[in-house]
Amino acid sequence: MVSIQTTRTLASFSLAIAMSATSVAAMADVMVGGAAMLPSRDIIDNAVNSKDHTTLVAAVKAAGLVDTLKGPGPFTVFAPTNAAFDALPAGTVDTLLKPENKGMLTTILTYHVVPGKWDAAALSKMIKDGKGKAMAKTVSGGTLTAKSNGKHIMLTDEKGGTATVTIADVYQSNGVIHVIDKVLLPK
Q1: Which fold, 30-180?
Q2: Mind listing the pLDDT tens digit for each residue in 152-172?
Q3: Does 39 sit behind a cis peptide bond, omega within 30 degrees of 0 on the bond before it?
Q4: SS3 16
Q5: What are the residue boundaries of the structural domains of the chain, listed by start?
């Protein structure tokens, strides 16, 4: 005979499994650049499928960061779109992609990466706990400032430039990506 407690425990366990399956299915539905971003893939394996991130992928390859971003992480990547790169002064991207500028390119790209897995809820909590702003140390050693602007998270770089998170919580097997509308620049 099965006790009422055992039945309740099994029901709770079944509900938890169903909710987890629903969460995973919801994460798989995120579309970026016309492609499904699958949480079972790493940052690079998803990014290469986004037609909105071809410049970022080319830059990551030129900087030699592919193996790093395929690594275990976890990483939080603020991923500028092609339009964000296009908004830089004419010739900037071509100059950065030259082999002799690999160091500068690497610094800029790693300025968009924060160690750990910081989804929008975690960032929002950090902002609330910080009385309206949160400071995030990047892999390059710089600092980003996050603030809320309505339903969006805004990032400010060390030069005073701002970017808006346009698509949050694109979960990866080794972290999370937040799509942003501007390229962030370190000092």
Answers
A1: FAS1 domain (2.30.180)
A2: 999 999 999 999 999 999 999
A3: no
A4: helix
A5: 30-180
